[in-house]
Each structure stands twice: as C-alpha cells, then as structure tokens.
Amino acid sequence: MTIEGSSSRTQTGFFSESGELGGSHAQFTEICTALYERELIALSHLSTTNISILKRRMGGLPYHVQSVARFMVSQNSPSPLQVDTHNGSWYAKQPAKCPGLNQDSENCINWYRKHMAYGLIVPVLIHSIEGFTIELDSIDMFNADEGKVHLNKHGWFNVARSLLSRANETKEAALNSITLLKPTKAIMSSACSGHVWNYKTRTMPRALSMREMRLSTQINWKNLTLTPKKQ
C-alpha cells in the first residue's frame, strides 16, 4: 500500500470515496474523523526512523479507518458493545474490578486446547506498575502437540502450564506480566472498550490502536470462537 499521489486530497474527498456509507452518512463521517485524527496523533509520536514503515501505515490508513467505521455503523451482530461515534470507539459499562484476575487457569487451558486456531481473537491481561488493562491480540501460529500458541503482538504462550503467562517470563518482570485469558463476553467487552484499572479502582479508559479496532470488528460474539468452515 502506498500514500495517495496527490497531496491535495481533502478530508471531504476521503469520505466521498468511501462507498455507500459515505459523506452523506453523519455517523460514518463522525467516526471516520475521530479515528483518522486519533491515528494521525499516534503516528506523529511513532519512534521510528524507518520512513518506509511510516509510508506503509499512512498509505493503509484510509482503508483501515473506513473498514472500522463501516462496521461500527452497520454492525448487527449480537455484540454487547455500544458505539461512541464522537470518539470513534466502543463503549460498555466498566466493572469495578478487572475481569480475568481470578480466572480459573485449568478451565482456561482446557478452552485453548479445544479452540486454539489461526486467526482467533483473544484477550491478554497486561499487569504493569500502573495497574491492569486487557488488550486484544490474535493467534498467528500454534502447536497443538506442544500446547503452545503464538500471538501476533505478544509472542508465545504455553497453554500446557498451570498459568498462561508469557513464555520465559522472569520474577523480576512480575509487575510487567502478560497473561493470556480465556475469552468471555465481560473480558472481551472490557478489552474493546479500553477499560483500565489501577490498584484501587477503575480509571480513565485508554484509546485502542487502529490494530485493536480492526481486531474488535472480527470477534465472533456468539461463542467467541472461530466459526468452523463448511465442507
């Protein structure tokens, strides 16, 4: 993907080229504006000297923004999420405590042994010095025989252990731990909504990256697994 050749392309042109949910659809336009502005801010703070990476991300931005906005406006899946058009984000009521902190590890392991599959959207608990949040990630490799799954961003996890902590994690990294969770509607709703908790209570939600927003549009809310393909 490359950046559009003409530097005179306007935001109006961006919306008018977006198909049936174009500039005449107020919610679509509002969501696109919020997503576009948020991602441009993120790109402006990107710590890279590789111009080709920046060009690729800029070039793909219109497609990703339109895809997410179109889904948010027209989605009719059994999702528990509401759409915040002003901020271009998902909204769900935030629980008082982070879901998944006391998840039964054996039940989680059994679930992954049964449902691990390429492309499955899964939640990852991030425990840092600031507190807790849940990120969306996806399985891009797995080895059922060895009981291991590899996530696109967070790497390898061993689903044969009693705890699904990231492989090779040290005790010194206890306050920066990453744990694979079994998807539930409460956990996935919090992940999609960017919920954050400190060590006392819930706090201001975070804005999801464009990557996580794309993943949020691929969740099978019916059973949180991949629907088997018909033979």
Would you mind describing this structure in some detail?
This protein has 231 residues and is an alpha+beta fold. It folds into two domains: 11-74, no CATH class; 90-216, no CATH class. Helices cover 33% and strands 19% of the residues. It has six helices and nine strands. The strands form two sheets. Strands 3, 4, 5, 6, 7, 8 and 9 form a seven-stranded antiparallel β-sheet that branches. Strands 1-2 form a two-stranded antiparallel sheet. Strand 4 (131-143) and strand 5 form a beta hairpin. Helix 2 (26-44) runs antiparallel to helix 3 (51-74). The radius of gyration is 19 Å and the shape is globular.
List the helices and strands and how they pair.
Blueprint: H1 11-16, H2 26-44, H3 51-74, E1 82-84, E2 89-91, H4 105-115, E3 121-128, E4 131-143, E5 148-151, E6 155-158, E7 177-180, H5 185-193, E8 196-197, E9 202-203, H6 210-216
Antiparallel strand pairs: 1-2, 3-4, 3-7, 4-5, 4-8, 5-6, 8-9
